[in-house]
Amino acid sequence: MRISSRVFVFLILCSIPWRSFAIENFRQPFPIVEPDPGHTKLRLSREGLEAIERITNPIAAVAVIGPYRSGKSFLLNQLLSLSCYEGFGVGHQRDTKTKGIWVWGTPLELMIDGVKTSVFYLDTEGFESVGKSNVYDDRIFALATVLSSVLIYNLPETIREADISRLSFAVELAEEFYGRVKGQDVAFEPAKLLWLIQRDFLQGKSVQEMVNEALKQVPNSEGNKNIDLVNQIRDSLAIMGDNSTAFSLPQPHLQRIKLCDMKDGELEPTYVTKREELKKLVTSIIRPKIVQGKSMNGKEFVSFLEQILEALNKGEIPSTGSLVEVFNKGVLERCLKIYSDRMATVHLPMTEQSLQGTHEIHRAEAMRAFDEQHFGRHHAKKSVTQLDEEIDKVHSNIILANRYQSSKLCEELYTKCEDQMDHLQALRLPSMAKFNAGFLQCNQSFEQECVGPSKENYEQRMSKMLGKSRSLFIKEYNHRLFNWLVAFSLSMVIVGRFVIKFFLIEIGAWLLFIFLEIYTRMFWSAETLYYSPVWHFVVVTWETIVYSPILDLDRWAIPMGVLAAVLVVYWRCCGRRKYGSHWILPLYNNPKNGSHRPRSD
């Protein structure tokens, strides 16, 4: 049992697919993208991606596209100087041999513009094979167009209308990405389009003339929509300009099924010569893949592939718009940050008009930055809309913050004014002038400092509160002043009688008391008194004494009264001993000084 269990464990360990042993030899083709089970979308193959990720040099890619069974895999093997048994698999059956996109694991090392560049060769699944949808073909074509630095369009014999229609995606990419800017950083530089026509005789025409003729407008007197669409593609191919070239390659041998077993000496000499010329041509036009202004190493290239594949699988049909969204994502985030940073410096609260104006200024700045940096022409509108929506979200949050800050500030000012009004209501010495000054100061400070959307609401509350405070103060003011005058008259009677002993003060105090308590009640009511000229004179005199902008008598009345009392006591107790009883004012008789002493000096 022990031996059998050890054998069992050994068999399990041997069955584990250890990657370090699986990709020990990179001189072989690897799948990097493969079809999903439904054969409509694409998915990554990690096995091939590891072959690319290990590269640290700038990367360039040569992709061959074309109809199935057109000799793409054989052509790649010829460009790599590999036999069919070493390189990409070559099939002779009716179904396509290559599924998805494959890469040769060992790149060619070339010096391009003084930079060591690793060149990968990509083999793609052929178009129009049995059991596939057109959408799947479009995804393969789109992915090869975006990834490659040189795109070899391998066509047997001639150029058909369907072959031109296939270029619609490449044309759309050219319009979106390549035609918009020159001399600036672009999303990714266009692949060099190489028309490769495999034909023995061109009937006296060069291959470039053949391509130019195929791209001429087709008459469409009946207004056929499909012909119009192809004609638009023909027109748009001019955008790529010097980005495309044409090359003819004769058939290598009449016995096509035996090509894999033939050496160069057995192939057509003309073919061998043209093949070497094609190698030189590809080498001369290839450049490192540039994405957003810089070349990519292996890991960056794989990351780029993942982004593109995600975009192309988005939705039922691959679109340039989805690619535009991928490349504009970073631009959109940067422009949104510009708006957010600018709005973050705004001091809240502020008026709604000012906030709206500031929003418009910074929004326009963000939109200008997006217009200068964004990728795509037609499909960028969706990214513009998305940026506008994101800006509106930030703006909505700032509006809420402005309302909160405005409400908070106005509430503080309102509470401060309310406390100030309560304080003025409780003055020890009531003063209409002081109340009016505090009322005006409170109202002015509120009008100047309370800003924002909450101001209108708080203005109404403030107006009601101040109106109630003013009415209550005026109502209590006359009664409190009347009571103060009564108390003042009685206190002056005591002072004139017992402290200063000046009979004129005592008589004046009695007259004031009698006037307030007896005469007014006999001839005037309290309300009538408050509207009489005599009362107005009393009020003016009181306000003159009590209120001064320099000296707050309400605050200092008690300390000053205490000080005056201390001085009087001191004067009464110590002053007479030191200076004698020399009085300036007429005093009451003093029995101690004799009955015949005059009352004044």
Per DSSP E runs of 2 or more residues, the count of β-strands stands at: 11
Can you give the mean pLDDT?
Answer: 77
Principal-axes geometry comes out as: rod-shaped
CATH topology of the domain at 29-317: Rossmann fold
Let me know the largest β-sheet: 9 strands, mixed
What is the CATH architecture descriptor of the domain at 29-317? 3-Layer(aba) Sandwich
- SS content category: alpha/beta
Low-confidence stretches: 1-22, 179-185
Output the radius of gyration: 50 Å
Strand fraction band?
5-15%
Distance between the termini: 144 Å
What do these coordinates show?
A hairpin with a 2-residue loop joins strand 10 and strand 11 (294-295). This protein has helices at 2-15, 19-22, 46-53, 72-79, 134-147, 161-165, 168-178, 207-214, 225-236, 269-285, 298-312, 320-344, 352-373, 380-425, 432-449, 455-499, 503-523, 526-530, 533-546, 553-579, and strands at residues 29-35, 42-44, 59-65, 101-104, 108-112, 115-124, 150-156, 192-198, 244-249, 290-291, 294-295. Strands 1, 2, 3, 4, 5, 6, 7, 8 and 9 form a nine-stranded mixed beta sheet that branches. Strands 10-11 form a two-stranded antiparallel ribbon. The chain has a domain at 29-317: P-loop containing nucleotide triphosphate hydrolases (Rossmann fold, 3-Layer(aba) Sandwich), CATH 3.40.50.300. The model is unreliable at 1-22 and 179-185 (pLDDT under 50). 56% of the residues lie in helices and 10% in strands. It is an alpha/beta fold and 601 residues long. It has 20 helices and eleven strands.
